[in-house]
Amino acid sequence: MPTRVTVYEVGPRDGLQNEARVVPTPEKLRLLRLLADAGLPRIEATSFVSPKWIPALADAGDVVAALPPRGGLRYLVLVPNAKGLERLLAARAAAGPGAAPVDAAVFMSASESHNQKNIHKSLAETYAAFEEVVPPALAKGLRVRGYVSTAFGCPYEGAVAPERVVEVTERLLALGCYQVSLGDTIGVGTPNQARRLLELALARARPEQLALHMHDTRGTALANVLVGLEAGLTTFDASVGGLGGCPYAPGAAGNLATEDLVYMLHGMGYETGVDWPLLIAAGELAQRLVGRPLPGKALQAELASRTLLAGKEG
Amino acid sequence: MPTRVTVYEVGPRDGLQNEARVVPTPEKLRLLRLLADAGLPRIEATSFVSPKWIPALADAGDVVAALPPRGGLRYLVLVPNAKGLERLLAARAAAGPGAAPVDAAVFMSASESHNQKNIHKSLAETYAAFEEVVPPALAKGLRVRGYVSTAFGCPYEGAVAPERVVEVTERLLALGCYQVSLGDTIGVGTPNQARRLLELALARARPEQLALHMHDTRGTALANVLVGLEAGLTTFDASVGGLGGCPYAPGAAGNLATEDLVYMLHGMGYETGVDWPLLIAAGELAQRLVGRPLPGKALQAELASRTLLAGKEG
């Protein structure tokens, strides 16, 4: 069994893009710095999506220009189309040499209707659009990661056949993505399903070419991660405090919380390079930025036990 | 792999005993009826602990006398001492023939300091006390289940050696308990730890003699249940809505939620006999009884998706 696991932190992009309160750029950078200090090796920082669609990420260029470099840390930025790639390349050029390394990421769904709803294209149109993004990005020296949404179920179509998910995954790898992250967008995945999907996917890809992006909507995220670990995967996505991931309702869970993932991994003896107290500090900051308690369980347990200890000492 | 899993519902006892608001007996019985209707095969109904310690359960006799019988359903009642056994036997006698079957349960910790704090006895004193409860209960035709708290960690001592947990388990089985439930009282357990503990325990006990009682304080409950399933266990404890289990703070998770457990089991193809809509109805009722949202994730996802659907239809 591998002893090192790579945690992909997606909170700053996925978590902050849907907030009612638009978090000011300096506060985003404060969170990014703290996550970087905590030792997270991969951080999804923002998205060069059109500000027309997601006004909260209109500052993507400023964010990328100011990303704090740390040894071994690579950032990711979503790039939905050729225009987005242009913006990313401009921001990188502005940041100059010595800037933190930034990879690109492209995303699509395994189901037609979710893809249509989310990025306003059919799957065929999306592949065509990615031809204008991925090969040019690679040609400019960028690394590109792929995300497949609705890999465990679609809010419009229900069950999604694992064969379809593997087909999309293969297309993204063939385009040149170094890794594809399989997303349980609505948090319906269960362990046998994860095992079956990974069996099929690992017949076509190496373990390091795959990642799991689980949602904890029904409490099954870490059980599915365990299946992924047993299948040989070494990369898992998560979000600080469980921020984002389109939870159904306030208090409901979306993205797997980074603290929960890291807690389990460390408890199992895996190395992540993540510093626990600094990760908790980042979770506290994320809560302050969005102005409400986040659903991450290990975060809440840690903060509550500190309060109890402080009470005993005081 | 076995295809049938037994879900032990502990909400009515474990969940309601620590509520600030004492839930009136008729409301407790309403919840018990709904859980029985939902098809849960085992329900921990109350405790014959001294009302001095837990006033909220002073109505244990009335509850036991009124437990709704259902085919295949057995209730459990905690019996901490000889006095408690006397009260249980009296309540059973009062309920008469045709009453629902009720088993007894005894509980202790794997760690000295938690046992002392929780039941005010050393481990040695507890074994001695159980000699006055378990054999007499068996002699009266009762079945007795055992619980081992702090089986994955102790709030006062930290790590608890699995060998100690297995020793307590063996003592309880030797006393005549038909099953021992290993409790992660503070929700610190991770999968390798669960695997190691079950390996040791299964060298001394049959799978059906063991159960897991996981807490979801750090999000790892279902990952640990998955390990239990893979080890051949077929019995898992959970609490409706995630009620109870001494969560650290409001909003923090204690007991694994029954809905989360049943969601994963059904998703994996296991039969539980539990009816999903009625289980959700029980979760809604539990929330009303305690007057706040409960932490169970699948419950919240289900209720939120209904609200969304109702909004779309309206």
Topology:
The structure is a homodimer of 314-residue chains.
Chain A: E1 6-9, H1 11-15, H2 25-37, E2 42-47, H3 60-65, E3 74-78, H4 82-95, E4 102-109, H5 112-119, H6 123-131, H7 134-139, E5 144-149, H8 162-175, E6 179-183, H9 191-202, E7 210-213, H10 221-230, E8 235-238, H11 258-267, H12 276-290, H13 297-313
Helix pairs in contact in A: 2-12, 8-9, 9-10, 11-12
Describe the structure.
Two copies of one chain form a homodimer. Chain A is globular and about 55 Å long. Chain A has an eight-stranded parallel beta sheet. In chain A, helix 2 packs antiparallel against helix 12 and helix 9 runs parallel beside helix 10. The relative contact order of chain A is 0.14. The model of chain A has no long low-confidence stretch (mean pLDDT about 95). Chain A has helices at about 10-15, 25-35, 60-65, 80-95, 110-120, 125-130, 135-140, 160-175, 190-200, 220-230, 260-265, 275-290, 295-314; strands spanning about 5-10, 40-45, 75-80, 100-110, 145-150, 180-185, 210-215, 235-240. Helices cover about 45% and strands about 15% of the residues of chain A. Chain A has about 325 residues and is an alpha/beta fold. The longest helix of chain A is centred in the last third of the chain and has 17 residues, at about 295-314. Chain A has one domain (about 5-314): Alpha-Beta Barrel (TIM Barrel), CATH 3.20.20. The interface of A and B includes residues 217 and 304 of A.
